Structures are given as structure tokens and as C-alpha cells.
Amino acid sequence: MKLARVLLPNQEIHVVVVEESAVRVLDFSQVQNVQRLTDILHSPDPAGLANFLIDTNVAPVAIEEVHFLAPVDQQEVWAAGVTYKRSQQARMEESDHAASHYDLVYSADRPELFFKATAQRVVGHQDPVRVRNDSSWSVPEPEFAIFLTPEMHVCGYTIGNDMSARDIEGENPLYLPQAKVYNQCCSLGPCVTLGSTDLDLSSVEIKLGIERNKAQVFSGETKLDQLNRTLDELASWLGKEMDFPNGAVLLTGTGIIPPDEFTLESGDIVTIEISNIGQLINPVEKG
Ligand code: DO4
Ligand code: MG
């Protein structure tokens, strides 16, 4: 089952169940203590609760008529890094100073985990992601993202874009937060696919396409079984020594990085597709 936060044609924001070609609006007035998408995700039976909440008095709304908002409420968004061989190689090449850090973290017990965004800095499907004004080498990072309960259990998946300024990150590893965290630095959505970690990773494909002036300027793909860590392992490292009363979203790292001569430009369209999860499309803005 897929759930989302959407803006309806009447400008109301609602949590919905997403079906093949329409969405079904949920009515939260039927139960106590369920007010947000997160409350459903963290409940013992998210699919059962969502089915129960479908407002049968409201007609299904066609998917083309709704605007998908980022599927986050108050969760912090975190990200794992250097979890694919491709990411380790690219980072070692872009940095003179930190090459051995990237090499070591790829195979170390403790993964790289960094704070990526508050919900306010996350954009949803079709809304613009941003390239920093002070970066001349920026790329999207297409990533499989997991939703975690306060107990650090995986309760759903979505598509994520960990926008990154490679020049700032490569200049000095201490600049990583500035390379990664700024307004509109992260995109998530369009929906949350309910599920836990019993996923056949080898069947999950991640694709990235970048379009400029209606022509494809980059495309790449990988599979989730190239991820060097398990989802549970990443979740449990994130939850060490840190409570997440609102749950968390964790981006699991990128396995697709455009060649070094590529940088995003204003007006580019970034499309990230993950099999069985969907397609996340965002235009790029600079400035
Ligand atoms: O080490 C820097 C960031 C790595 C990252 O974001 C990734 O591998 O996806
Ligand atoms: Mg990343």
C-alpha cells in the first residue's frame, strides 16, 4: 500500500491512500491520537489503519489533480554515505585531502551518517530542488530512503535525492554540512510504500535521468543489492545513543554519480525511479 500527503484541487492538505489512478482521502476524525501520516506509519498495523480511515463519503480524486507534498511531518532526515563502491571511488577522486577517510569508512564497522534536513528543507515531487549559489559543481544523489519508527524499525520506503555540492565537499571534508544542507537540499516522495526490511534487494533497481532543454544529458542505474550495508544495520547505527520520538527518515547512500565534468544547471529536470516505489521528478533551480 502507498500513502501520501497531497494538496487537493480545493487547496486542502490531506493524507491519502494512493491507488493506481486515484487517491482516497483519509478521515482522521474517526480515531483519537491519529493526526498525521507519521501516526499511521508508526501504528502496529499501518495498512489496516489506513484502510479503516478511508473516507467513503469523498469520491476518489484523480492522481493528475493532486499535488504531492513531501511525505514528512516532524521527522529529522538523516543520510548514510559511501555505502556503494561507486560513491567511495568518486569521493576519493574529488578530494585530495580525505581520500583515505572515504576508503576506510566504506569497509569500517561504523558507517558514515550525517544530518541532512529538517522537514522544512525537504521538497516533494515536482517542486524545485536547489543548487547553491556558491557551488559550480553540484549533482543529485538518487537514494533509497527508509522511514523509521521511534524504535528504529523500518516501516516504509520512498525515493530520495541527497543534493550535493561536490566542489565544497571536495575542498575540505569539514565543509560536508555546507555541501549537503541548505534550502531545498533534499527531495522525498512522491509516496511512502509501506513495508519492513523483508525486501528482496536484488530486485530493486534505482535509475537516474537528467534532462536539459528536453534532451537527456545523463542517465545511470544501479541495484539495491550493491548497497554495502543492510537496512537494519544502518538503522541500528543511527539509533545508537540518540532518540527519535518522531521517527526518522534515512537516505541510504548513492550508487550513481555522474562523470566529473557534469554539473547541474538551472532548468534541468531530475528524474529518479525506483522499481515498485515510483518516480520522483524535480526541476533544478540555482539562486
Ligand atoms: O561522504 C560524503 C557523502 C556521501 C554520500 O552522500 C553518499 O555516498 O551518498
Ligand atoms: Mg548521498
TrEMBL record:
Family annotation (InterPro entries): FAH, Fumarylacetoacetase-like_C, Fumarylacetoacetase_C_sf
GO molecular-function terms, A-Z: hydrolase activity; metal ion binding
Keywords (A to Z) from UniProt: Hydrolase, Metal-binding
Domain Fumarylacetoacetase-like C-terminal span(s) in chain numbering: 108-284
Matching Pfam families: FAA_hydrolase (PF01557)
Entry-linked PANTHER family: 2-DEHYDRO-3-DEOXY-D-ARABINONATE DEHYDRATASE, FUMARYLACETOACETATE HYDROLASE DOMAIN-CONTAINING PROTEIN 2A-RELATED
Protein name (Swiss-Prot/TrEMBL): Fumarylacetoacetate (FAA) hydrolase family protein
